[in-house]
Amino acid sequence: MNQEGCLRTIPAIATTIALLLVLLSASAPAATWPSGKLTYTSTTEQGCVPGVDEQGSSTYYTNWTYTDSSGVAHNFPGTSSVHTGPLADCPDLGEYGFTATLADGTGSITLTTLGATGTIKITANIFPKYQILSLIYSPPGNSSTNGFTDTTFYGSTNSVSNSFSAGVTFTFSAGGGVFGVGGGTSASVSFTQGYGTTNAFTNTITSGQTLTLKSSRNPVDHTNDTFWLWLNPLVTMTQTGATAASYTISPPSGQVMDAVRISVAELQTPSTIPLPVLEPIVINGTTYPGLSNICAHPLPASQCTQANACGCVPSDFTQILATDPIIGITGDEPPSQVDSKRYFALNPAPSPFPYLEYGTTDQITLTDASQGSETQTETTTYQTTYSTMAGSTVTSTPVDWTLQWKVTDTFTWTQSVSLTNFNGTSHQMTLLLGTSTPDCDESIDVFEDYSYHTFVAAPAATPPVACDSN
């Protein structure tokens, strides 16, 4: 900003700007959101050529202050300006501005100016205790495995709208790139926000070859089903109007994604959860939460043991377990009989047809590439507590954040149930069927979970006696 040639200064004028949604200007009428005001101090200097006052002027706007509805003043550094006059004599003609952000753990207030006009954006940082990234189902056969191939895999589709009062319009903005995985898990696995729509986002799994679940029993045992849980998600909400907001999902700034794998059986009996999963961990000098952070009454580190599950009890994991409705399946009951809107038989069926037989192994690539796309009306929801300040249980929100929680002490994730292949990419996993038990042989049907887009193997008929044993 060139101030050379300015000769005379007009006394400072304090100016108040009324707020219209997020746009502030001298002529805008007062509005209800946010109910604050923006002020600045203006100083005008005449003349662009020494000794010639009439050759233009420069007005500078400083001391920008946003006073929130609680009367708290937030002062922003920076100067904006307007320069007028003949082009030859006043090279800085036009309007100039700046952007400044005031932030703490609860959120931020950002001011963007151009001349005498300012724009305020208010954000809230929300820290849900966890998000379910994926669910892998245990196959029949005591030597069988089920898991991801080393391809890009689009998983569950999620939204956050049910956390807020009805009538709020949301826009999801994809961002954050590949997160990586902490928590002592394999670095060869990564998750990302691979795809976003107007109000929802889809988790994407890449390099997932280590996401394999090994069965230990011949009968179907869904207590061996395994969840991947993300323990440090950050939801950044930016209010864009009285009943509208945009949001992004990412780990907190400077952190990687902290994800752990945990079985249904371990969640049902917390004393069996390994201590390294329960306890916080340190990655590159940063402390990440352990699974016990989910629990209502976690014990301090000095009292935390695997035997007492660091204070966790089965009821702490009720919401997670409820997202696996086929835990209790035994025998040849198909998952579609439990939930016909979530589980669908692969059509066409895998070829060759999967078969579990003693003395041989049968490896099949499971894919829904030929399955017709369809969207169901059913959704799966689960709730978790949250905080709005990292490392604490403070639930205060930034000033003038007027989108109200629907449930005051919980954050709701909503998963839509659909089959969508992005850019022609199918969902693909590898099923290896094997058993060490003589006389165990049976045909296997395959179903797809349309919530997580993972596959469920189940006996096609009543299993023989040998397949009902370990």
Main sheet specs:
15 strands, mixed
Count of DSSP H/I helices: 4
Shape: elongated
- Name the poorly predicted regions: 1-32
C-alpha end-to-end distance:
79 Å
User: Which class do the helix and strand fractions yield?
Assistant: mainly beta
Integer count of domains: 2
Strand and helix map with partners:
Layout: E1 8-9, E2 13-20, E3 23-25, E4 37-46, E5 57-67, E6 73-76, E7 80-84, E8 94-96, E9 99-104, E10 107-114, E11 117-128, E12 131-136, E13 145-148, E14 153-159, E15 169-172, E16 190-196, E17 201-206, E18 212-214, E19 226-230, E20 234-241, E21 244-250, E22 259-263, H1 264-268, H2 275-278, E23 281-283, E24 286-288, H3 318-321, H4 335-338, E25 343-345, E26 355-357, E27 362-367, E28 374-384, E29 386-387, E30 411-419, E31 428-433, E32 441-449, E33 454-459
Parallel strand pairs: 15-21
Antiparallel strand pairs: 1-4, 2-3, 2-4, 3-11, 4-5, 5-6, 5-7, 7-8, 9-10, 10-11, 11-20, 11-29, 12-19, 13-18, 13-31, 14-17, 14-30, 16-17, 19-22, 20-21, 23-24, 25-32, 26-32, 27-31, 28-30, 32-33
Please describe what this structure looks like:
With 470 residues, the chain is mainly β. The protein has two domains: 8-123, no CATH class; 129-468, no CATH class. 4% of the residues lie in helices and 41% in strands. It is built from four helices and 33 strands. It has helices spanning 264-268, 275-278, 318-321, 335-338; strands spanning 8-9, 13-20, 23-25, 37-46, 57-67, 73-76, 80-84, 94-96, 99-104, 107-114, 117-128, 131-136, 145-148, 153-159, 169-172, 190-196, 201-206, 212-214, 226-230, 234-241, 244-250, 259-263, 281-283, 286-288, 343-345, 355-357, 362-367, 374-384, 386-387, 411-419, 428-433, 441-449, 454-459. The strands form six sheets. It has a 15-stranded mixed beta sheet that branches. It has a five-stranded antiparallel beta sheet with strand order 16-17-14-30-28, with no helix packed on it. Strand 23 (281-283) and strand 24 form a beta hairpin. The chain is elongated, with a radius of gyration of 29 Å.
